[in-house]
Design a protein that fits this description.
Elements: E1 2-7, H1 17-29, E2 34-39, H2 45-51, E3 57-61, H3 67-80, E4 85-89, H4 91-95, H5 97-100, E5 107-110, H6 114-121, E6 128-130, H7 149-158
Parallel strand pairs: 1-2, 1-3, 3-4, 4-5, 5-6
């Protein structure tokens, strides 16, 4: 199973900590999983789409300003990899799940993403998947290596 996590294109380079938690949680609970990560601030669209060509699931974390970008990348990925499942989560899909289920988007996560993404990876194909708040002790530390945290730190010190 190959899962790609994508943090939308935005005007800043803030760390994608939520995706770091999701990636760590998936790795902790599934041994046969490959997880990739792209961030729109650093990675161009072509690189992201190319990186998703052999993915089983591509999941986007997005806010309202980044949702159109996530939807456009999801459609581009589906044009190249018709068997991929695309998932959106984050603030915008949680607040407007019906509006988030548009062409190119297969599933929407409402609420916390860790357990919801594990359910999706394990086979849940419902269009709307509800996350649940987790106890802090249930969560592994975020995988900062996965989300290329050093890029964010370097930018922060140069700003």
């Amino acid at each position: 199973m190959k899962v790609i996590l994508v943090h939308g294109k935005y005007f800043n380079s803030w760390e994608a900590l939520g995706l770091g938690y999701i990636g760590a949680y998936l790795k902790h609970n599934m041994k046969d999983i490959e997880i990739g990560f792209y961030q729109g601030y650093f990675d161009d669209d072509r690189t992201i789409v190319k990186g998703c060509l052999d993915a089983d699931i591509v999941a986007f974390s997005c806010t309202t300003p980044t949702f159109p970008y996530a939807a456009a990348i999801a459609r581009a990925v589906k044009q190249e990899n018709s068997g991929v499942r695309t998932v959106v989560g984050g603030y915008h899909p949680s607040a407007a799940p019906g509006e988030s289920l548009i062409k190119g988007i297969d599933q929407v996560v409402i609420g916390e993403g860790e357990a919801a993404m594990l359910d999706i990876v394990m086979g849940n194909r419902e269009r709307t998947v509800y996350g649940r708040p987790m106890e802090f002790e249930e969560l592994p530390w975020p995988d900062r290596e996965l989300i290329h945290n050093k890029r964010n730190i370097q930018i922060a010190f140069n700003d």
